[in-house]
């Protein structure tokens, strides 16, 4: 529930709100489930604010600061979000339909399952952003920055992908997403018709042999920012595609350790047999991981590997690029 005192200050105007926030940088801002529909909040400081489930539809938020903010499930459709800062923001399942996001910074933002139908992302910065399962149908992505953006299972109907500046790996992700078709064999008829339309003999469909090999997905979560003197949490999940929602539910148990998690999803190049050993090894220059590696057998459809990590002082006020390597067998 929203903090009524904070809400009262915001209602006094953006200038009053920003002045109040300038002297309270560490204050926990809770504006969750608040109705801001159609309100002019351009330039407002919502850095690391909790706006979960808020209604910001049709609001003017031009040049607002949403860095590290939590907007899971918020309605921001038809809003003016041009030149906003959403660096590291949690926009999971956020409704951004037909919103204006021109020249907006979405670096490292988590847009998993977000609805960006017909949104305008002209010249937006989506580097390191997670667009897994996002709806990008008929979206304007012209001249957007997609450096290391995750396109796992996105929908891009009405978008000319060939015009986008994508890596080969990203194009492969998109091709796999658009070509994947799930067939429900239980719904197929048990009588087969020949080309002339005549019925053949009744033929029960033979069950497909299960060789217990599956495509495995790997999803990691870690903080966007942290202090060098503190230990932080890294979670790496191995799971089937149908269990991503369960993974996200499990991550919420670690909200006290990873307040604004960065989600990254990839998948195995080949199917992995049940019982195969998986070894997960995180690495990053200037960062210590404990344990250094985690190994387990791929027996169930979901496994979690827990790591703690600490950065040395050489990374103060700097960014570090890490790598998670998964070995099979």
What does this protein structure show overall?
- Strand 2 and strand 3 (232-239) form a beta hairpin.
- The chain has helices at residues 4-10, 14-22, 168-179, 244-251; strands spanning 213-214, 217-223, 232-239, 261-267, 272-273, 277-283, 287-290, 294-297, 302-311, 323-328.
- Helices cover 11% and strands 17% of the residues.
- Mean pLDDT is 86; it is low at 180-211.
- The protein has 4 helices and 10 strands, in the order H-H-H-E-E-E-H-E-E-E-E-E-E-E.
SSE layout and pairing:
Layout: H1 4-10, H2 14-22, H3 168-179, E1 213-214, E2 217-223, E3 232-239, H4 244-251, E4 261-267, E5 272-273, E6 277-283, E7 287-290, E8 294-297, E9 302-311, E10 323-328
Low-confidence stretches: 180-211
How much helix is in the residues?
Answer: 10-25%
| Biggest sheet character | 5 strands, antiparallel
The N- and C-terminal alpha carbons lie at a distance of 48 Å
Which outline best applies?
globular
Number of helices: 4
Structural class by SSE content: alpha+beta
Average pLDDT, rounded to a whole number, is: 86
Output the strand order for the largest sheet: 4-2-3-9-7
Helix and strand element order: HHHEEEHEEEEEEE
Beta-strand content estimate: 15-25%
What's the alpha carbon Rg, rounded to whole Å? 23 Å
Quantity of strands, as a count: 10
Features:
329 residues; alpha+beta; five-stranded antiparallel sheet; three-stranded antiparallel sheet
Quick synopsis:
This protein is an alpha+beta fold.
């Amino acid at each position: 529930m929203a903090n009524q005192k904070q809400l009262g200050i915001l209602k006094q105007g953006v200038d009053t709100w920003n002045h109040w926030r300038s002297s309270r940088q560490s204050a926990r801002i809770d504006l969750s489930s608040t109705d801001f529909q159609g309100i002019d909040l351009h330039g407002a400081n919502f850095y690391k604010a909790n706006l979960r489930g808020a209604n910001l539809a049709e609001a003017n938020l031009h040049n607002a600061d949403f860095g590290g903010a939590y907007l899971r499930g918020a309605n921001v459709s038809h809003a003016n979000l041009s030149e906003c800062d959403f660096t590291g923001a949690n926009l999971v399942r956020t409704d951004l339909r037909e919103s204006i996001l021109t020249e907006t910074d979405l670096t490292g933002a988590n847009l998993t399952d977000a609805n960006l139908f017909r949104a305008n992302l002209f010249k937006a910065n989506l580097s390191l952003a997670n667009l897994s399962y996002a709806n990008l149908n008929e979206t304007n992505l012209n001249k957007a920055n997609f450096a290391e953006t995750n396109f796992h299972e996105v929908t891009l109907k009405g978008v000319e992908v060939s015009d986008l500046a994508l890596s080969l790996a990203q194009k492969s992700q998109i091709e796999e997403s658009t070509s994947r078709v799930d067939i429900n064999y239980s719904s197929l008829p048990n009588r087969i018709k020949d080309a002339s339309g005549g019925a053949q003999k009744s033929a029960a469909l033979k069950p497909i042999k299960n060789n217990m090999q599956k495509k495995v997905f790997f999803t990691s979560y870690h903080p966007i920012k942290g202090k060098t003197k503190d230990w932080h949490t890294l979670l790496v999940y191995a799971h089937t595609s149908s269990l991503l929602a369960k993974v996200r539910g499990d991550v919420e148990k670690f909200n006290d350790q990873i307040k604004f998690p960065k989600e990254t999803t990839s998948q195995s190049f080949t199917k992995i047999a049940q019982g195969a050993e998986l070894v997960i090894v995180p690495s990053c220059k200037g960062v210590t991981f404990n344990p250094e590696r985690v190994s387990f057998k791929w027996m169930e459809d979901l496994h979690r590997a827990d790591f703690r990590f600490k950065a040395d002082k050489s990374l103060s006020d700097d960014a570090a690029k890490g790598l998670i390597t998964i070995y099979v067998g």
